[in-house]
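Case study 2.
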Amino acid sequence: MTGTRKEWNHTPELPIQISPLFRWPLRPLEILRWFWDSWFLISERLILVALAFLSWYWLQPALERSQTFAFDWVALMWLRNATLMTLVAGGLHLWFFTFRGQGDTLKYDPRDLAKGRMFTLGNQTYDNIFWTLVSGVTVWTAYEALMIWAFANGYLSILRYNAHPIWFIAIFFLIPIWESFYFYWIHRWLHWRPLYKLAHHVHHRNSNIGPWSGLSMHPVEHIIFLGSVMIHWVIISHPVHILFHLQYYCLTAATTHSGFEGLVIKDKNRLALGTFHHQMHHRYFECNYGSLEIPWDKIFGSFHDGTPESKEAMKVRRKRMGNKLGG
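Prediction:
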């Protein structure tokens, strides 16, 4: 379905639906299809599980080396993470916005990425790259190094696959669910006026988004946002789960903010990327604080399903809220 050129270049099929896990009556086949599409064949999540194992076995300093904090092994982790982010965000930006590899096909917002004094470096892309690499990758690496150090020193027990194979595998499936829960609540908190003015406004300079926008945040927001990984102090895990958790959080921030619904190869959408649900959040601010996996926005009245009726309801809600900052 194509929206009006005035507002949207492309929209998915509307109205947007929450996950079938929370739609009544429950339809088991629809749930299985949703689960299969989310994880298997060619999916972001399965690619990132493979990347986490690759990182653990070939791109991670030895655990024994991590017993004492040292610049060398932490710097190697920072370099790996910066490279991964540059390959993902930079690669998508080059394809979609520099080379215009698929033109405007599946592009949500008809506008180009912006320039102006509102951005730290006067250019949206440069601003986003700066905050992503200087702050985002640094905080990402700091959390990762802290967790690996804790494993290396026995402060966190290591879950062994051969001892608990079902739980070992289950954690990969549970991390996105935890992310959906955590993200909604910290996101609403970041829209509290003092925190919005201090930190979250940096991310919301991007009313139109591109791949580098996803992790473009103030350091305070990075600390809060990536603090999700601290759940592994509560549940027994393996270091590979930490790598997956943070790579999932950071790299999918780039893909979901790509500005395009998916990657088109041979006239077919081969890999789902950006979500219109979150694209509307950047355009309208006072809606869609969470994700579609857990329907918090539905429950608390901030869900925008993309229809004109939903847009009018959002305007009424915003008027009722007065001039309160949102995002």
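Residues 91 and 279 are 20 Å apart (CA to CA).
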